[in-house]
UniProtKB/TrEMBL annotation:
It comes from the Bacteria. It comes from Candidatus Pullichristensenella stercorigallinarum. PANTHER family: ENDONUCLEASE/EXONUCLEASE/PHOSPHATASE FAMILY DOMAIN-CONTAINING PROTEIN 1, ENDONUCLEASE_EXONUCLEASE_PHOSPHATASE FAMILY DOMAIN-CONTAINING PROTEIN 1. InterPro entries: Endo/Exo/Phosphatase_dom_1, Hlx-hairpin-Hlx_DNA-bd_motif, RuvA_2-like. One of its GO terms (molecular function) is DNA binding. This is Helix-hairpin-helix domain-containing protein. GO terms for biological process: DNA repair. Residues 62-81, 92-111 form the Helix-hairpin-helix DNA-binding motif class domain.
Amino acid sequence: MQVPRVNRWILLGAIAALFLLCVWTHRGDFAREERLLPIVTVEGASLENGGYLININVADEEALQTLPGIGEVLAERIVEYRAENGPFASVDELDNVYGIGEGKLASIRPFLTAE
């Protein structure tokens, strides 16, 4: 049985569309399985209560930037404040650093310690 020429093109187009649909729906699945998150060790961090705490009295700018909402500028201000005023007596003293208000302090407090 011979299939008319027009029907062959329709059939070929349908097969190609199905193939592309399969490729599109499964794109990246294999790559996603292979992705691994890097393990980062932070100097001045200790494991306590099931989570890592960053000691604000010894942490460098890079470690401070791992905190949510703390970028390069705020990390630099924290380190400068510590250099000018000595070690932090408590985490709450971060409120004295320009740019860190009550809201920001509340969001980063669970990740900090002042030892």
